[in-house]
Design goal:
It is a single chain. By secondary structure, the chain is α/β, with parallel strands linked by helices. It contains three helices and eight strands, in the order E-E-E-H-E-E-E-H-E-E-H. The protein starts with a strand and ends in an 11-residue tail after the last helix.
Length: 180
């Protein structure tokens, strides 16, 4: 599993000219699943570990302006809210399915996506990821539509863009040298 997170002032997803998801300040997260990610992944410790890392990664400013607060705890400052307290009180998360995170560009000029999880598996994992994050951030999660041709818009704040890969964070999962 790979998550590419971007701290954003706002984000949205549009499909066929219709806006399907909008967030205020928070994170826009592209989520991809690889060939070793199976339907059993949500029951593994690395699943919860990746979610906790995503929600607790200190990429939001504290009162002193230092990146020192995770999304789970970050309160949106009043000056960043839309209108008179109309904006969200806490940071939001826009989750977007993104199989191209597993692109292999080592040969030729056309990327190969054979390292991405099969669509049926990835769809189930994306739905479970959305549900599990929503359980930790009730009412603060929006998502794109799996397998749709989406227009994803965001205003990257910072910019702050960070890649989380379970193979890096949980090295015990890596195959032996030379393995697939």
């Amino acid at each position: 599993m790979q998550l590419l997170l971007q701290r954003a002032r706002r984000g949205s997803v549009t499909v066929d000219g219709r806006t399907v998801a909008v967030i205020g300040p928070g994170l826009v997260v592209l989520a991809g699943f690889g060939p070793r990610d199976a339907a059993t992944l949500p029951g593994e410790p690395r699943w919860a570990g990746m979610i906790d890392k995503l929600l607790d990664l200190r990429v939001f400013p504290d009162d002193a302006g230092k990146m020192n607060v995770g999304l789970r705890d970050w309160a949106v400052p009043p000056d960043m809210r839309a209108g008179d307290d109309a904006g969200p009180a806490f940071g939001e998360l826009l989750l977007v399915p993104q199989f191209t995170l597993y692109a292999d560009c080592r040969k030729g000029r056309r990327p190969s996506f054979s390292a991405a999880a099969p669509p049926a598996v990835a769809a189930r994992l994306f739905d479970q990821l959305t549900a599990d994050i929503d359980a930790r951030l009730p009412g603060r999660v929006r998502c794109g539509i799996f397998a749709a041709d989406m227009d994803v818009a965001l205003v990257n704040w910072g910019p702050v863009t960070i890649r989380l890969c379970d193979d890096d964070l949980f090295p015990e999962r890596r195959p032996p040298h030379g393995g697939g």
